[in-house]
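REQUEST FORM: STRUCTURE PREDICTION
Request ID: SP-0412
Submitted by: Lab K.M.
Chain count: 1
Length (residues): 465
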Amino acid sequence: MRQHTRMGDKLCQLVFDWRAAGAAPTDLSEGSEPSSASDRTGALAQGLMEAVVAADNMRQALKRVRANKGSPGVDGMTVGELPGYLKGAWPRLRQGLLDGTYRPQPVKRVEIPKPDGGVRELGIPTVVDRLIQQALLQVLTPIYDPTFSSHSYGFRPGKSAHQAALAARDIVASGKPWVVDLDLEKFFDRVNHDILMSRLARRIGDKRVLRVIRRYLQAGVMLDGVVTARSEGTPQGGNLSPLLANILLDELDKELERRGHTFCRYADDCNIYVHSQRAGERVMASVTQFLEKKLKLRVNQAKSAVARPFERKFLGFRVIRQKSARLSIAPQSLKRAKDTIRRITRRNRGVSLARVLEELGRFTDGWVGYFWVARTPSVFQKLDEWIRRRLRCYQWKQWKTPRHRARELLKMGIGRYLAWGVAYNGAGLWHIAGCPAMTQSLTNAKLTAMGFHSLHERYLALAPA
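STATUS: Completed
RESULT:
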């Protein structure tokens, strides 16, 4: 594996070695080096396409695309096949980008179910287009990100969902006990191309970059072999989509700052904090009008509300204010976690307990890794108890017959009378899983030795004392 990786890295170097390709890189305007982000933000950024196709930038983009992996697009090319393809095709692709003739391929539409019902439509670009989008992203981010609001946390270098949730908690603690929770209806599907491109043209003077971005926005969507044209929206799944969303919604951020509001925004999830319900209703009405008239975005009235923070969910958390404001895991997030755990530990799956524990560990490690900032140890303790009981149910079901169950209990040191009595007990699985015979045979320590990852122990390891 290490040898394969080294060979891939060597190929990455060769792909963008301009001397080997027989061409020299074109620098920004008349041989100058790419200007810094601070230089670009005050004036139109020129010669950006040369910066996009520069060898170092492309190597970094290729490395990132390979690390992210992902599914093939409409052409079926995998990430692993990309370096080999580029070795022959890159000079042609590069020239197409430089002379403005490059045209992206359609994206492949994939539908995934949403936790609260419905489906989320993802657009998967080809790996070549993911590479070019990543190269564009690396050049455009230093131009735009320094000018974004400090209240914007989504998909930005050095920003995270944890920071957004903790900022929301601090705002509530400062004395703003009402939240205007705005939900933008199908935001990524409703982005107005003309408005977005006009915002980009304010900062970008390179027509070739603007042209290729518009072509990405307008690239068709392929579903069941049929390509459908797109006149609005920026499909989720493209490397550029989060940055383009932030560029458009930065206008909302600047408007909220101009009005003196305190808010937190993570991508299209925006919470504005106010002192009273009446103030919240005024803000809801005025901001809705701004979004719909200025940015042509639609606010989902059914999912938006003016409420107390503990009644609303923000990035999977809610803010509870008792003696002091603190983060708690939103009930919806806990329910979704339990639904996933139920699916993994479903008793009729027909796979080994070891495999169940492996899948369960991958999920719970990630889940605790995200929600530990809520500082709710009792939630993790109760989940541990509930999961262990489900695992005992699963093992009991796998033993199948009363004779097999009794023998397994005897092997684990359970007394003969208790083992045979439980084995022939007609009670339900959940009742049996909580009886002394099962808790003494499949102890917490034994489940841990078999591969169970305690949520509470992981929480304690992550949460500072």
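NOTES: The chain has a mean pLDDT of 87.
Reviewed by: T.R.
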